[in-house]
Amino acid sequence: MEDMRYLTFALTKGRLANQTLELFERIGITCEEIKEKNTRKLIFVNEEQRLKFFLAKGPDVPTYVEYGAADIGIVGKDVILEEGRNIYEVLDLGFGRCRMCICGPMEAKELLKHHELIRVATKYPHIAKDYFYNKKHQTVEIIKLNGSIELAPIVGLSEVICDIVETGSTLKENGLFVLEEVCPLSARMVINQVSMKMENERITRLISELRAAICGAEGKDGSK
Ligand code: PRP
After folding, report:
1. Any residues with CB less than 8 A from the CB of 157 and at least 6 apart, and which?
2. Other C-beta atoms within 10 Å of 67: how many?
3. What percent of the chain has pLDDT over 90?
4. Half-sphere exposure of 94 (CA within 13 A, CB side)
5. Is the CB of 168 under 6 A from ligand 1?
6. Looking at residue 102, what is its pLDDT?
7. Which of 97, 101, 163 has most ligand 1 atoms within 8 Å of CB, for mutation?
8. Separation of alpha carbons 160 and 154, rounded Å
9. How are beta strands 177-185 and 98-104 bridged, if at all?
10. Pocket lining: 164 vs ligand 1, CB cutoff 6 Å
11. Is 147 in the pocket of ligand 1 (CB under 6 A)?
12. Phi and psi at residue 92, in whole multiples of 5°?
């Protein structure tokens, strides 16, 4: 056990990390240190299981994994698509479910239908570009924003937005609608390409244990 090398996990800070740790606990992977509130520690170790964990901002998780600073990452599908890193996506963890959508006021539906040259505000310029240029073959102007994307069509910055919709309440409270759906999203497990070869046995076992835990939970509450 002692000479076994550490497997390092990069977790997306916030709700995704908490849900990941809950899922890991169900298969016997624990990390007590990481649960301590108000800690300024950046890296957490489970010596016994030879595991390390750290928390990172979502868009940085695929970067750590591509470069091998983490063997395994847990991150939203939105970030995977946007970052376009050379990593393996191996498992849908089933939580953090939401949708990437084109949203705006109802009048904007016609502009989308007639392939007008419109402005699209988004935190996800690559996803928006791929959707409009490669899937819809519509030329648009993409404007990158960093948050509160719903503001853009309200204040006249853009006709539509490309953004995440979870409950739909942000749209509703601002008089906006889902006009088109780009793709469904959820938390995914990603793996460094070299780690997948070098640590194949451990990683494959981890994936199958997680898959069984996820399927078990989905079967139990009847949801998917
Ligand atoms: C996300 C997303 C939407 C909202 C959707 O924003 O960009 O604004 O959540 O959730 P809902 O459908 O349940 O209302 P987030 O809260 O992450 O903050 P941001 O505006 O800074 O991106």
Report:
1. 119, 121, 143, 151
2. 12
3. 88
4. 15
5. yes
6. 98
7. 163
8. 9
9. antiparallel
10. yes
11. yes
12. -90, 120
C-alpha span between 150 and 13 (Å, rounded): 23
- For the CA of 171, the closest atom of ligand 1 is 14
Query: Cα–Cα distance between 214 and 224 in angstroms, integer?
Result: 9
What is each CA distance from 63 to 116, 123, 185, in whole angstroms?
Answer: 36, 18, 19
The pLDDT of residue 222 is 46
CA 205 to chain centre: 23
Do 113 and 106 contact (CB within 8 A), yes or no? no
By alpha-carbon position, which residue is closest to atom 10 of ligand 1? 166
Could you read off the pLDDT of 98-110 as tens digits, one per residue? 999 999 999 999 9
Nearest atom within ligand 1 for CA of residue 123: 22
Average pLDDT over residues 63-73: 98
pTM over 0.85: yes
- Ligand 1: centre distance to CA 23 (Å): 24
pLDDT tier, 82 (very low <50, low <70, confident <90, very high otherwise): very high
123 three-state secondary structure: coil
37, pLDDT greater than 70: yes
Q: How far is the CA of 188 from the centre of ligand 1 (A)?
A: 19
Atom of ligand 1 nearest to the CA of 170: 14
Q: What percent of the chain is modeled with pLDDT above 70?
A: 96
